[in-house]
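Re: duplicated header lines in exported structure tokens

Our pipeline writes sequence and tokens for each protein into one text file. With two proteins the header for the second block appears twice in some exports. Here is an export where it did not happen, for reference. First protein block:
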Amino acid sequence: MSEKVIKQCVEILERIMSDDTVPRNIRRSAENVKGILLQEGLAEAVKAASAISILDEISNDPNIPLHTRTLIWNVASQLETIPVS
């Protein structure tokens, strides 16, 4: 199940990265989060925690468009469903 959640999150992050209305620093952070989620050899819970930390940081950026902030909150809440085991 965790793989499915991560796959969905990566798809949303790719949508953010390809959106030209999103500031470059936000797109770069989305790319970093995607890299963390796709990293091999890390436990899903560790990936999720690292990603949520970055997403929380960028969601507080005053320059982020409202629709992008909503997508980021969506990704973060999906990642929070990954169990810590």
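Second protein block, exported in the same file:
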Amino acid sequence: MRALALILALVPFSPAAAEVLVAARMIPARTVLTAADLAVKPGDNPAAMTDPAQAIGLETRVALYPGRPVHGSDLAPPGMVERNQIVTLVFRSGGLTIRAEGRALDRGAIGDPVKVMNLSSRNTTTGHVLPDGMVMVDP
């Protein structure tokens, strides 16, 4: 017991200076974050983000309120395809590539699966959003 008291007396006690990422202003859902939207404040919230570089460029999934911590679950990659947007559908099989116009029936970010309707045939299929905004139709 005395050894424990001696160890505690020798170890300097300083509270951890934890910081959390907070919204600098009211940020509506589906807003792509910039450095001006965020601030770092002292706080202790293990679920909150701490590095603004991890959040800049992401899109809010929910409204963020000033001074409240920003959690990773509040953010997502920005949407590349909006619902009802006209997109190019791409189908590749071996050396064959077919392109057609389609209408996105869902909203999605890069890599997300979205339902699309081929405007020529009116058939509905599913594809994945590519970085250039086209949709790669699943075989």
